[in-house]
Structures are given as C-alpha cells and as structure tokens.
Write a structure and sequence with these properties.
The structure holds two protein chains of two kinds. Chain A is 29% helix and 30% strand. Chain A is α+β, with helices and mostly antiparallel strands. Chain A has a seven-stranded antiparallel β-sheet with strand order 3-4-5-9-8-7-6. In chain A, strands 2-10 form a two-stranded antiparallel ribbon. In chain A, strand 3 and strand 4 form a beta hairpin. In chain B, helix 2 (20-44) runs antiparallel to helix 3 and helix 5 runs antiparallel to helix 7 (358-392). The longest helix of chain B is centred in the C-terminal third of the chain and has 35 residues, at 358-392. The chains are: A alpha+beta, B alpha+beta. Strand 1 (55-60) of chain A pairs antiparallel with strand 5 (159-166) of chain B.
Chain lengths: 210, 393
C-alpha cells in the first residue's frame, strides 16, 4: 500500500456517515441505489408492456393463399337432376336428389380422423335407434367405393319400427381431413337415389386451388 | 466503520441487495428451476414448461379439487431480475472506480448486458412463420401457435379490411365490441382444444344456427403437449349488430374455409385462423431447393430463392435464403426452417428481436474485459518484479 503524502487524505468509497464528507458520499451512494432501482423497474416494465389488442389492417386482394401443406380442394360432379345449395369447392355442401320424398345429402369435411370409423358408425346407428357394434362387426357392414380421391368406406343402415328411415354414409381420409358424404331420409327415396349417390362418391376428386 | 445497529434501513437493504449470499441463492434457485422445468417438459411439452418455469415471475401450483392456483416458487424471470439487480448493486458498491479495475468493470457490464438482453428478448421477441408455395406471393406472417378471430369486410374489389381479435380476448371476455365495424361479438364458448365431429340427432342441443358449424359437434379435449402439434381451438360466438343477432357461429382453426354473412349490403367473413402480422412488402417463392448427399437420403442443403418486392421503397430483388444464411430485412430475420408437400412448400421461420445483437456484444465485453484485466494484472506484476530485481541489484 502506497503511504499517503503529507497533506493528502485517502478516502475509501464506502458508506460512512461519520465522515465529514458523509453527505457527499451519501449523495453518491443514493445515486447508485437509485440507478439500481431504476434498472429493476425498467426490467419489470419491459416484461409487462406487451398487450393484446384488436388489430385492423387494410390488405390488397390477392389470389387466395392455399392452406398450409396443400394447394388443392375437393370437387364433385352433380348427378343429373340433383340440386346443390352451396357451390362446389366449399368445404360443406347440401344436395337434393332428384327423387320424390324426404331425402337429403350432405358433404362435410372435418380435420383429422374426426373420431374414426367405429365411433361415427355407432353414432349414426344410435341416431336410427340401432344398437352399437364392435370392430369385428363393422368390417362385415363396410363396402368400398373407389373414387379419384381415394377409397371410401360406405355403410348402409335402416332403422326399425313402423316408419323406417335409411342412412347411407361414405367416408374417406382426404387432404389431411375426413370427408363425410351422408344421405338420410325415408327408405323409399333413399333406395331410389342410392345408385346416383354411389356415382356421386365415385366422381369425387381433388383439384388444384385457384 | 459504522455498526449495523446504527445503520439506517436503506443502508442495510442496500448491503443485503449487493451481498454475495443473494448471488449464490439466486444461482441455486436457477439450478432448481432448470431441474423442475426439465421434469415438467414430459407432462406439459417444452414450450409450456419454459413459459411456466423460466419466463414467469412466479411458479403456480393448481390445488387439486379446487379452482385455486397458488404461487409456490419464484420463477426464472423473478430470480433473473433479482440476480441482475444484485450484480449491478455489487458492482456499484464494491468495485473501485479506478483504472486498475477497468477490466472487471467491463466484464460485469457484459454480464449485466447479457441478463438485460434476455429480458428484452422475453419482452419483445416475436417468432412467426411464413409458409409459402412455389410461385405464391405472401405478404403476411403467421404465428405457429397463436390464433385470432378474423373479421373481414371483403366487399371492396380491391382490398379487404381485416380486424383481428387475439385469442386472449376470446378466452376471457364475454362481450367484445369490434371498433370500426358494426359488430359486437358475444362469446358463448371457448375451447382451448376440441374434437369436431359430424352432428347427429342424439347429440346435445347446440346454439349454433349459422354456417358450417351447424352440422358439427364440439367436444373439449386436454391441451396438446407435443411440440409438433397444435391445439384445435373452437369458439361459439353470437354476432350482434345494432342490438340484433346475426346468428350464432362455430369458428375453429380446424375449419379452413371462412364463413360469410351480409350486413347492410356489405359482405363480411368470419374465421378462426393462425394469428397474422401483415408486412409492408411481399415475398414470392421462385424456387425451393432440397439437396441430398449423393447416393444417400441425408439432406445436405435446403434453400428458398425468393423475390422481395417493396413497392413503397421501390425495391425489387431476388434473395437466396438457406439454413445458415437468413434474410435480414426491416427488423425481421427469415430463416429456412422446414419444407413439405413434395418440395413445393417452404416454411420460413421469421424472428423479430430488437435485442438480437445484445448476446454478441456482451460476449465481446466479457472476453475483452477478461483480457484487459489480465493485461493490467500482468503489467503490474512485471513492474513489481522489475522493482524487486532493481532493488536487489
């Protein structure tokens, strides 16, 4: 340690209120503490400053972007005489066969497996008042319809009782989702439209998006 | 020296804040948090575990059988904040402001900057994706995990007015007025993760009476924990205009096509989609390259040749984005992250982090500070040695 020269006073930069210059040291120390507190407050504020708000932006129209991983959509050919309430290319459509009586056809696309074959078959059977079945029985009820978009599993159920209802459903995994084509109505008109229903399913194909 | 008994409270608190015991306690807590977070990843997935243990101020525990959630441990953000303030306080209190300690000042400044940078990143960093097909032009980024309810006026042939309602508002608010539109959204149901199935008559009654969702049943599922999957959100919302109901709609990021309604001659679309951030410029994917090592299936290189178009700046140029060569433009960094659809889809990861340079600067400061301290110490040692040798001779 170098000894102080005559007349020179060494001061340590530590807090000591008894020093004659304690006020100066106190002031410097308070400044240091204030800096530390300010730093802490800044970090706290920075961590909490982001808020979620409703955004608004005006976007120039472009050609519709394709869904991630796919540039295609599902299309089909309407059997002659059938009508459609939603234009082809949209994910969900309602069709009306050209037969007399109560019958309607719906096309629905849901993401993923949408519950799987067995769960859906038992739900449809339950809707018609039929008992649930197991994996072993479902195989015997399944028919296969080949289309340009892949193979559809088709099931045909008829309810019991005085007023019978009939349901024919075809489902297939397409483009990462499950397409359901379901015809439901009274027994006679569903039977009359069955062959055209199968033609509809066979004609389902995948097209490139615009 | 003042005795502790005569020291004011502020002085004692300052001593405690700058003490080495606080430093060691914080480091021990960080080690415990790392272990807890690692174990929690199995149950929650890595992103949720990091959010719960590392990026939060407190770690909460859900009391079984109740809706209570109580804090049980300090989170990484709180421990990091205390450690940062401790480092600052210790440096200001103990280090002499002299040239001989300059190296240590620089090292401590580098460490403090590193902590500050992590706080800045946590607060301001945004990571999004840009999936783009070959030949496609895209002018927006998408969040890989967050969704928004998008309400768009598509009447005008030249542009759309898009209003995005963030998921945080959908989850906690009952009534959401969308300023700038005639609509108020009444949230009837929010599902963080849901299974969507075709509706049958035996399903419970649904309030959805408009659009695609009228034929769909929603069943709640636990949130996903795998990092490569995302939750399938579903919301049931009643749209009000002028106090009149415009129907109750089911929206989900699992239903791709927007649903539309017409109000006072204007066409509006509703959808729940990945949260978007629109850019003042666009990128067109000209070509995606996926090279393999000859004779193997081992990937060698992925790259995307994109055309950058910024009409406001009059900028039109081609840029090659590869795994180690991101595009840095307008505060964003575009990295080649993934691909798909038979090499026709490129997925760029886009990071906006205003503090991205801070870790590099802090490393330079710490390394430079250590070198400086070594040089100064070596110089003093050599001078002492010369003085000793000179005294002996």
């Amino acid at each position: 340690m170098v000894p102080a020269k005559m007349g020179m006073v060494r001061r340590e930069t530590t807090l000591d209120f008894r020093e004659p210059s304690g006020l100066r040291i106190l002031s410097r120390d308070v400044t240091r503490r204030s800096l530390a507190v300010a730093a802490a407050l800044f970090f706290l504020a920075a961590a909490g400053c982001r808020r979620d708000e409703i955004t608004h932006v005006r976007v120039a129209k472009r050609a519709p972007a394709a869904p991630q991983g796919s540039a295609r959509s599902i299309a089909w050919t309407l059997p002659e005489g059938w009508t459609q309430s939603v234009a082809s290319g949209v994910r969900t459509a309602s069709l009306k066969p050209a037969v007399a009586g109560h019958v309607e056809v719906s096309l629905t696309v849901l993401p993923g497996m949408a519950g799987g074959d067995l769960a859906n078959v038992n739900r449809w059977r339950g809707q018609l008042g039929l008992s649930a079945i197991d994996d072993a029985a479902i195989a015997s009820l399944r028919a296969t319809v080949q289309s340009k978009a892949g193979a559809f599993a088709m099931y045909d159920f008829t309810s019991e009782g005085q007023k019978k209802r009939r349901m024919i459903v075809a489902l297939a995994a397409i483009e990462g989702g499950t397409l359901f084509v379901k015809m439901l109505g009274d027994v006679a008109p569903v039977g009359a439209a069955r062959q055209e229903f199968i033609s509809l399913v066979e004609g389902i194909h995948v097209v490139a998006a615009n | 020296m003042s005795s502790l008994r005569t020291k004011p409270f502020a002085a004692r608190a300052w001593d405690a804040l700058a003490s080495l015991k606080v430093s060691i306690t914080c480091l021990a807590l960080l080690m415990v948090l790392v272990v807890l977070c690692t174990l929690a990843q199995v149950r929650m997935g890595s992103l949720a575990a990091v959010d719960a243990y590392v990026r939060s101020f407190l770690v909460f525990w859900d009391v079984p059988g109740t809706a209570l959630s109580v804090p049980v441990f300090p989170g990484g953000a709180l421990v990091g904040l205390v450690l940062t303030v401790n480092l600052v306080a210790a440096q200001l209190k103990r280090l002499e402001l002299s040239a001989r300690k300059a190296g240590l000042w620089v090292v401590h400044a580098g460490l403090i900057l590193l902590f500050a940078g992590e706080f800045a990143s946590a607060a301001f960093q945004v990571e999004m994706q840009l999936p783009i097909q070959v030949g496609e032009t895209v002018d927006h980024l998408e969040s890989p995990r967050d969704v928004e309810l998008a309400l768009a006026d598509t009447t005008d042939p030249g542009h759309d007015d898009v209003y995005g309602v963030p998921e945080s508002l959908l989850a906690r608010n009952r009534s959401i007025p969308v300023t700038g539109t005639p609509f108020v959204l009444e949230m009837l149901r929010y599902s963080r993760n849901a299974d969507l199935r075709p509706r049958v008559l035996t399903d419970p009654p649904s309030s959805v009476d408009m659009g695609t969702g009228a034929g769909v049943t929603v069943r709640d599922l636990p949130p996903v924990t795998a990092d490569d999957r995302i939750d399938q959100r579903a919301v049931v919302v009643e749209v009000l205009a002028g106090g009149q109901s415009r129907g109750t709609w089911l929206l989900s990021n699992g239903l791709d096509a927007p649903q539309s309604l017409i109000h006072e001659g204007r066409t509006w679309t509703l959808s729940l989609r990945a949260r978007r951030r629109y850019l003042p410029y666009s990128l067109t994917l000209e070509k995606f390259s996926h090279d393999l090592y000859p004779g193997t299936d081992i990937p060698k290189n992925f790259s995307s040749l994109v055309h950058l178009s910024n009409r406001a700046q009059g900028e039109e140029r081609d840029v090659l984005i590869s795994m180690n060569q991101p595009l840095r433009y307008a505060g964003n960094a575009f990295y080649q992250a993934s691909f798909g659809d038979g090499d026709k889809l490129s997925i760029l990861q886009v990071v906006e982090n205003p503090g991205w340079l801070i870790p590099y600067i802090s490393c330079v400061l710490v390394g430079g500070g250590l070198l400086l301290h070594f040089a100064l110490s070596l110089g003093r040692a050599l001078r002492r040695r010369r003085a000793t040798v000179g005294g002996l001779t």
